[in-house]
Amino acid sequence: MMERPVDVFFYGLFMDADLLLEKRLTPVNPRPAYVEGFQMRIGGRAMLLPQAGARAYGMLFALRHSELDRLYFGPGLELYRPEPVLARTLQGEAVPALCYNLPEAPSSEESSPEYRARLRAVLRKLNFPESYIAALL
Question: Do 70 and 23 touch, CB atoms closer than 8 A?
Fold first, then answer.
């Protein structure tokens, strides 16, 4: 039986389809999107925190569960857990999706300037709003 793909909202470096392809995944149906009520927080990696009035941008892709299991296996990534979100494409279409997130926020001392720089480059490559990118301190 063929495993069906599910929609996944990525907000960190996995927004870059080239990175997913390097990991031997087959992302399909890419769509720029956002989720309301969340803000991105960057420690060693990115996570989303609930925040009224906030908006987090990212990419929707369809992937198979077996691919997601492979993607989120490894040092640091195994801590991420899938959660349901309602993403909206930039054209306004509502899309129920999985979103992998950390169960606990990173400490205020935890920071990765390298990750932050790479994330900004990916967001610019995908043409997300410069105001959003600049706000990622």
Answer: yes
Q: How far is CA 30 from CA 1, 27, 55, 58, 107, in A?
A: 24, 7, 19, 10, 32
| Domain containing residue 41: CATH number | 3.10.490.10
Q: Is the whole model's pTM more than 0.90, yes or no?
A: yes
Q: How many domains does the chain have?
A: 1
Q: Would you state the structure tokens that stand for residue 54, as one six-digit string?
A: 């906030």
Instruction: Specify whether the backbone of 27 is left (phi greater than 0), alpha (psi in -120 to 50) or beta.
Output: beta
Determine, yes or no, domain membership for 1: no
**Torsion sign across C-alpha atoms 12, 13, 16, 19:** negative
Digitized pLDDT (tens) for each residue of the chain, 137 residues in all: 578 999 999 999 999 999 999 999 999 999 999 999 999 988 888 999 999 999 999 999 999 999 999 999 978 899 899 999 999 999 999 999 999 999 888 777 777 889 989 999 999 999 999 999 988 76
- In total, the chain counts a number of residues equal to 137
